[in-house]
Amino acid sequence: MKSSLVTLLCLSTGVGLGLAALPGQAELFRWVDENGVAHYGDRIPPQYSKQRREVMNERGYVVNVKERERTEAELSAIAEQKRLEQARAAEAAQQAQYDRSLTATYESLAQLDSAYEDRLAIIDAKINTTEKAENGLLLGVADLRKRAGDSPSAGLQRRIDEKKVQLREQGNLLRRLKSTRTELAQRYNKDRARYITLTAQRDAPPR
């Protein structure tokens, strides 16, 4: 900051020669212009009203500092930082709640393994049943088409169409079951790893 030139502005009483030339003045401001020159006065010109300024008493002591107003970019950055901090806090709280639920639900890693293996076995059985049903429908459609030949009767065509609808339904069900199994297996792996970490922390000897 340039300090070679210091100007004293006394807007209410005219130009003075120093702080002592302001008898009865209770409060002064000090600000710096764009050239680094310090100014003093009882009023701040509008073009400097948003800049940093010091508030001084009648003895010339700084009694308060008013920082410059933040720019739109700075305000946006502060708001974004606050949003990120709130999001991280919410995520941490959610993770802590999930951790408590995980350790409260399973008394041991073996119990967790058993529970997930049972769920996966149930889904595998449903997948197996659905695949068999799908294969049976495929064979049924193929058999009806073979019997119908090039000119199927109205009755045979209706049966073919019905089986094709059932086949699509079984295919959709099979995809949903496989998707559910994939998600469950991923959750199992995640919960198992997390449980191991949590119990290791819990059972670690105090330092």
Output the helix-strand order: EEEEEHHH
Radius of gyration: 39 Å
- Unreliable stretches, pLDDT < 50, 5 or more residues? 1-23
- Give a quick account of the main beta sheet: strands, pairing sense, barrel closure: 5 strands, mixed
**In terms of structural class, how would the helical and strand content be classed?**
alpha+beta
Walk across the major sheet and give the strand order. Answer: 1-3-2-4-5
What does this structure look like?
With about 210 residues, the protein is an alpha+beta fold. It folds into three domains: about 5-65, no CATH class; about 70-105; about 105-205. Helix content is about 60%, strand content about 10%. The protein has a five-stranded mixed β-sheet, with no helix packed on it. A hairpin with a 5-residue loop joins β2 (about 25-30) and β3 (about 40). α2 packs antiparallel against α3 (about 155-205). The longest helix is centred in the last third of the chain and has 50 residues, at about 155-205. The protein starts with 5 loop residues before the first strand and ends with a helix. About 5% of the residues are buried. Residues about 1-25 have low confidence and may be disordered.
